[in-house]
Amino acid sequence: MTEALPVLLDVDTGGDDALALLLAMASPTLDVRGITCVAGNCALEQVVSNTLTLLDAIDAPPVPVAAGMDRPVLNPGLPAPALHGGDGMGDLGLPAPRRCRAGEHAVEFLRRTLSDADEPVTLICLAPLSNIAMLLRMYPRIGEKIERLYVMGGTYAAPGNTTPAGEFNVCHDPEAASIVLQSGLPVTLYPLDPFMQVRITEEEAKALTQSKGAGARIAGGIILHYCRFFGMAFSLIGDAGTVATVIDPEGATTVGKPVHVELSSGVTRGATVFDRRILTDGFAREGEWTEVDVVTKVDAPRYRKLMAVALGALEALDE
Ligand code: BDR
Ligand code: CA
Description:
nine-stranded mixed β-sheet; alpha/beta; binds beta-D-ribofuranose; binds calcium ion; 319 residues
């Protein structure tokens, strides 16, 4: 048997971050060494509380949860989007957490955990990149202990979801996204293009809410909340697709492309621009560009199945 991959998750739980955590915590191929929280889908305190409550609900082992940046590195950031509900988790009426957070700031927790690790660790970043950018700026040599960053953020060919050209995690903290994506560390970017591809229907979500497992019931409630918010008969597994890419990379199609994060003010601030030209040598390209692996497409049935297995709810999610 191959050893589980050591990972750290950075989240803004957040309904779809909750789905991602359910998948990661259930996967025997991942060894979750810690979870760091950052403001994004809701305020930092709510993110921490949601994360701890979710771990309580599934009776998770005592994985450390550390609170980090309560705002972007430079700018005030965006208001919490209404789509996640008043508590960021679809207002399911979940109880207050029983378990406690770690005593350290997330950036210090990441530095210590990475430094102490025997081997480089994979970071799964599902939120604005404020914690990770601070880590890389404060401790530049820590990159040696990072195996790869899987980052949910940006758009490749798809439209934005926060501005016409920009995705939420990048738009909330564009400077942080630029620092991380231009760091030169190995990055797999999971943009809105694959994010939009893995769906769960309203009927399936209803079936999930009747499941035996607490995680499946919460997942069903979250998906139903999104269906109702958007008035759609389906919703997305969202951030959980990024985790699926780590667990099962063969389900993802990737392409290596140079990326630039637009930082100037105006309508394209926070857009991820890719150099998709066939010939780039000798052609003008101003600003910072770094090649990243971009997930352009995923095998949706394969990732739905991963999710169904993780939730222990194969019968609720049809092929
Ligand atoms: C991203 O922003 C949040 O709404 C989701 O949790 C996801 O990480 C999608 O733009
Ligand atoms: Ca998120």
